[in-house]
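Design request, tokens follow.
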């Protein structure tokens, strides 16, 4: 919502999108850089957020195990600089969140489906241009892929949504 916003994009670009009968591949592709994260952090008081946060620590420990004896050396924030593995792991916690859940909350909160419908659009059920979550870390993400994503500076909550005209006419 900090940039143009989905409603504004739909309002402007929906008239340019051809009917599916004229071009079955016609789509409006939107990238949501922060929508899932903004929604997640606006819902920190929820049970979902708390349980997810506990799960994240477990997943991070599986992906990037820490030397538990070194953790005992943490006395204050200044001592963290002596433990780069701890800082590295903590910086990756967001990569393990359930971003699809938070994006669905965003869609519902913003009534995006109904808004798109008003302009003759719907969200594609199956993407045809790009993966919806190209940078999301999942169970199948290899160590090499994880290291590349971690080094890329991407967060994992980048979400692509494809809109298309409703119906065939």
């Amino acid at each position: 919502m900090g940039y143009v916003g989905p409603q504004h994009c739909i309002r402007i670009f929906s008239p340019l999108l051809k009917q599916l009968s004229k071009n079955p591949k016609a789509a409006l592709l939107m990238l949501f850089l922060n929508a899932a994260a903004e929604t997640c952090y606006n819902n920190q008081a929820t049970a979902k957020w708390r349980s997810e946060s506990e799960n994240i620590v477990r997943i991070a420990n599986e992906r990037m195990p820490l030397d538990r004896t070194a953790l005992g050396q943490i006395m204050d924030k200044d001592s963290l600089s002596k433990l780069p593995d701890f800082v590295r792991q903590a910086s990756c916690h967001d990569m393990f969140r359930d971003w699809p859940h938070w994006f669905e909350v965003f869609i519902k909160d913003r009534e995006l489906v109904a808004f798109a419908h008003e302009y003759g659009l719907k969200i594609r059920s199956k993407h045809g241009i790009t993966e919806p979550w190209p940078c999301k870390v999942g169970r199948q993400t290899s160590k090499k892929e994880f290291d590349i994503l971690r080094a890329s500076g991407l967060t994992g909550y980048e979400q692509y949504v494809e809109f298309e005209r409703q119906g065939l006419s």
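Comment from the thread starter after seeing the answer: thanks! The mean pLDDT is 88.
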